[in-house]
Inverse folding.
């Protein structure tokens, strides 16, 4: 432990090194990591450090607050501020199962959140933020939605956009608004589990349509439309969850043509489009009146906003959708909707999304290096679909991984129905849910070692 009269710790600050409070917090973290500062060492009083570094006191206060957030420091009242003991990890589980965005590279998310909320509270009547909003989003929210969707569609009429409390709510409302009990919904053989759960809850039936390496097969879709007279087709065409397949443009056009010929609507659930590297135009650009397009902020920014934008061209269908939505989700929380709008309109969302995109690609490179020949990802997005060696079954591997402190999602969680396709034997690995990159590396390495071993015969544990 450092003596209280030991020489003062001083970080080096660079003129072009970014915000000074972050430089100080980063220097603290580096000093703890390399042993220059030890648990129990006393930090300089804030005023003294401010004077030594020739910065204002607020900068030091923000730096110490950031270091506390990182669990580097602890206060001991009048005795001062000390380097904290290492945080004990109460759970050993390395979660590779939840498809959430990684912490954005080069972005101080806490600061962004504080600034965004401060702007919202300064510019908006607090009473409005705590009241009912029944119109599927304010005019400003819809304008923000139009800007969010501009990379996909160019200029849009904001009145065609409905603001929803997340993509799951949007999917459920579309099912209620556009289908009847007993109707069939067509989807790919492996698809988003939330679709099947919503359909089952409402008494609809999901039937799988054969897919290949380019996604749903148009000829099989047309055949299924004639056979089942579906109420809707569900597609997740960009970096599909879970297979990470992106349907190419020519296939998207063919699927749009089938939908027109068969007069069936398509729910285009497209949460990863803005994370993808040069994605094709949405299917909705080829069948504007036939497709209901959903884009959520949960995968590109943060799930906590609970905001998604739905593009519905027809005003009557839009009103039916709103009626269905209000039956179970009256509105988006006004405070988070206002924050999302603030971030989109002031450009903060673009910076946050760039940070998520950069971090996701770094993590894909890590997964490719560690998983070697088994990696088959696209290099972007939030997940990898890992086909397994024949000696492992997906549910068996998931259980074995769990016993070693790793959570992954087996293929069975995504199966929508039987087709002529061979049963899939794979797991989905989500790269964003582990906040720390070092822990992610540890989880992927542990998983790689597990994949290289053959499963052990089942036996009874003796303790």
């Amino acid at each position: 432990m450092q003596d209280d009269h030991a020489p003062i710790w001083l970080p080096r600050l660079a003129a072009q090194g970014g915000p000074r409070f972050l430089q100080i917090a980063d220097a603290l973290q580096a000093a703890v990591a390399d042993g220059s500062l030890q648990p129990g060492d006393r930090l300089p009083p804030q005023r003294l450090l401010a004077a030594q570094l020739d910065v204002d006191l607020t900068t030091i206060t923000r730096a110490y607050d950031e270091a506390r957030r990182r669990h580097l420091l602890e206060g001991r009242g009048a005795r001062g501020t000390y380097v904290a003991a290492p945080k004990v990890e109460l759970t050993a589980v390395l979660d590779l199962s939840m498809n959430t965005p990684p912490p954005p590279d080069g972005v101080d998310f806490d600061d962004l959140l504080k600034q965004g909320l401060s702007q919202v509270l300064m510019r908006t009547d607090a009473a409005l933020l705590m009241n009912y909003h029944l119109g599927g989003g304010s005019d400003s929210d819809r304008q923000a939605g139009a800007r969010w969707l501009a990379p996909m569609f160019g200029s849009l009429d904001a009145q065609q956009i409905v603001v929803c409390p997340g993509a799951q709510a949007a999917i459920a409302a579309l099912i209620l608004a556009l289908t009847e009990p007993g109707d069939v919904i067509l989807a790919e053989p492996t698809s988003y589990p939330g679709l099947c759960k919503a359909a089952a809850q409402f008494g609809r039936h999901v039937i799988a349509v054969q897919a290949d390496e380019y996604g749903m097969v148009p000829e099989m879709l047309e055949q299924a439309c004639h056979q089942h007279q579906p109420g809707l087709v569900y597609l997740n065409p960009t970096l599909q969850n879970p297979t990470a397949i992106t349907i190419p443009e020519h296939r998207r056009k063919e699927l749009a043509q089938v939908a027109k010929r068969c007069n069936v609507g398509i729910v285009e659930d497209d949460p990863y489009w803005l994370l993808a590297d040069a994605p094709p135009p949405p299917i909705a650009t080829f069948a504007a009146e036939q497709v209901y397009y959903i884009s959520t902020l949960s995968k590109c920014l943060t799930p906590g906003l609970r905001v998604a934008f739905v593009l519905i061209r027809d005003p009557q269908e839009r009103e039916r959708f709103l009626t269905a939505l209000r039956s179970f989700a009256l509105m988006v929380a006004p405070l988070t909707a206002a924050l999302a709008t603030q971030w989109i309109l002031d450009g903060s969302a673009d910076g946050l999304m760039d940070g998520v995109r950069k971090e996701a690609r770094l993590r894909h490179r890590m997964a490719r290096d560690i998983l070697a020949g088994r990696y088959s990802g696209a290099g972007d997005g939030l997940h990898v679909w890992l086909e397994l060696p024949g000696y492992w079954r997906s549910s068996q591997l998931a259980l074995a991984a769990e016993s070693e402190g790793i959570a992954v999602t087996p293929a069975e969680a995504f199966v929508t129905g039987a087709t002529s396709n061979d049963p899939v034997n794979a797991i989905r690995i989500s790269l964003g849910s582990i906040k720390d990159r070092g822990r992610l590396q540890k989880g992927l390495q542990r998983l790689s070692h597990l994949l290289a071993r053959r499963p052990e015969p089942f036996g009874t544990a003796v303790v």
